[in-house]
Design a protein that fits this description.
The chain is about 35% helix and about 25% strand. With about 425 residues, it is an alpha/beta fold. Strand 18 (about 350-355), helix 13 (about 360-370) and strand 19 form a beta-alpha-beta unit. It binds guanosine-5'-monophosphate.
Length: about 425
């Protein structure tokens, strides 16, 4: 894991007796920079267990008091006792690049999925109900009645296996460890998951150097489409997946900026960790959210595909087709970037332009000066498999003096890195020239 990156939060869950604790320990012992999170519990310590190592043992009142203050990332009632994962510790360690493994129950895993969408959830599956029952009997810690209760729990936990990313069949512990290793190994080199590899930056500084400029800066990124409602169900919008804005927010974050992401409706996109997310719906919402977020901002990257038009009026409920057709009058929405850049906020502005055909550069330049932006990223429309609603992108950054920084085609993740770096190189020069 690079020194600039965030660690991965692993969640190991599955039926009691499936072997999850052994496998969680295996991750810590062999997985590189991975450590355990010590949970809090209201159950009594067993022989040999120590406070602070196995669990933070506490009374029910202490637990509930901490829960009220938002101290836990997730909590669950398991076998009549409360269990919870301390949130602060997990966040702190992840932010220094350390990975964490949680050995928790399925209720907890579901809460982690919501609070930490980037977490990697691994479900440990016993080879068969018979083997699970035998393991529970051999463990010798439970009575016959308790074993049947655990078998019923195993069924209800397995019902939720669909929320997990991976499953590991634990038929033999050595094979199960190898399966887990292959998951960790592939995540460690997945360009989607890890911070941008330092080696690529060093090998191609012309494209990827310059992000240091962003350390400690405040950046606001807008992403996704906006929706302008016709009635309570139908809307006018733009084609936009939001991936470019989300990728840019992550690239600025990884460069050390404090990032606010103002996002239109982006369907299934997961909120990036350690980025302040503000959700909006319409162009009007977006403008209002920005008005509140711009104080002290060094850069506003306006990636959102804001709808240029909205219906002149909005119908309540759902328009009924049997009423026949109707005329829809559209009125233009505000030019948000122009409005904000005109307020002398002290921020720099990055505009995005999508242009088709010849003269695209000139139109992008005109758009940049019209909006008072300090740079524009020009997407060429009509390139198969690139741009709108695609995971890939390509384009060129253009600055007010007409100078250009080509951004090589790649996943939006790579394009975002190149944009952050190119802006950093340019603004550092400009700051030097000003100072
Ligand atoms: P035990 O008391 O036997 O150590 O753990 C009982 C169950 O509670 C296990 O399934 C374990 O994974 C789960 N558990 C332990 N700590 C936590 C926690 O912090 N949160 C949740 N949700 N479950 C936990």
């Amino acid at each position: 894991m690079s020194r600039n990156g965030y660690g991965i939060l692993y969640v190991i869950a599955g039926p009691s007796g499936a072997g999850k604790t052994t496998l969680a320990h295996h991750l810590v012992e062999t997985g590189g920079n991975i450590s355990f999170s010590v949970s809090a519990t209201t159950r009594k310590p067993r022989t040999g267990e120590t406070h602070g190592t196995d669990y933070l043992f506490m009374t029910r009142d202490e637990f509930l008091e901490l829960e009220k203050t938002g101290w836990f990332l997730e909590t669950a009632l398991v076998h009549g006792h409360l269990y919870g994962t301390p949130a602060g510790l997990v966040r702190d360690r992840l932010s220094t690049g350390e990975s964490i493994v949680l050995d928790i129950d399925v209720q907890g895993a579901m809460q982690v999925r919501k609070a930490f969408p980037g977490a990697v959830l691994v479900f440990i599956l016993p080879p068969s109900p018979e083997v699970l029952r035998r393991r529970l009997v051999d463990r010798g810690t439970d009575s016959g009645g308790e074993i049947e209760a655990r078998m019923r729990e195993a069924a209800s936990e397995t019902r939720w296996a669909g929320i997990f990313d991976y499953f590991v069949l634990n038929d033999s512990i050595e094979d199960a460890k190898a399966r887990l290793d292959s998951i960790v190994g592939s995540l460690a080199v997945s360009l989607d998951r890890i911070p941008f590899p330092e080696g690529m930056r060093e090998l191609d500084p012309e494209t990827y150097a310059g992000r240091d400029y962003w350390k400690g800066k405040k950046v606001v990124v807008t992403a996704g489409p906006t929706r302008e409602m016709i009635d309570d169900v139908r809307f006018i919008s733009n084609r936009s997946s939001g991936i470019m804005g989300y990728s840019l927010a992550m690239a600025f974050r990884d460069a050390g900026s404090r990032v606010t992401l103002v996002s239109g409706p982006c369907g299934a996109l997961l909120p990036p960790a350690a980025v302040k997310l503000v959700r909006v719906d319409s162009a009007g919402d977006l403008e209002a959210a920005l008005a509140g977020a711009m104080t002290g901002t060094d850069l506003l990257a306006m990636v959102a595909a804001v709808s240029d038009y909205r219906p002149g009026s909005r119908h309540g409920g759902k328009l009924d087709r049997s009423g026949g057709g109707f005329d829809l009058r559209l009125e233009p929405t505000d030019d948000i970037l122009r409005n904000i850049s005109g307020t002398g906020s002290g921020s720099r502005f990055l505009a995005f332009a999508l242009e088709y055909g010849p003269g695209a550069d000139e139109r992008a330049l005109a758009k940049m000066s019209g909006k008072g932006a300090d740079a524009v990223f020009l997407n060429l429309g009509g390139i198969e498999g690139s741009g709108m609603e695609s995971p890939f992108n390509s384009g060129v950054l253009i600055f007010p003096d007409g100078s250009r920084a080509e951004v090589p085609p790649g996943s939006k993740r790579f394009v975002a890195e190149a944009i952050v770096a190119a802006l950093g190189r340019r603004f550092r020069r400009d700051d030097g020239a000003d100072g």
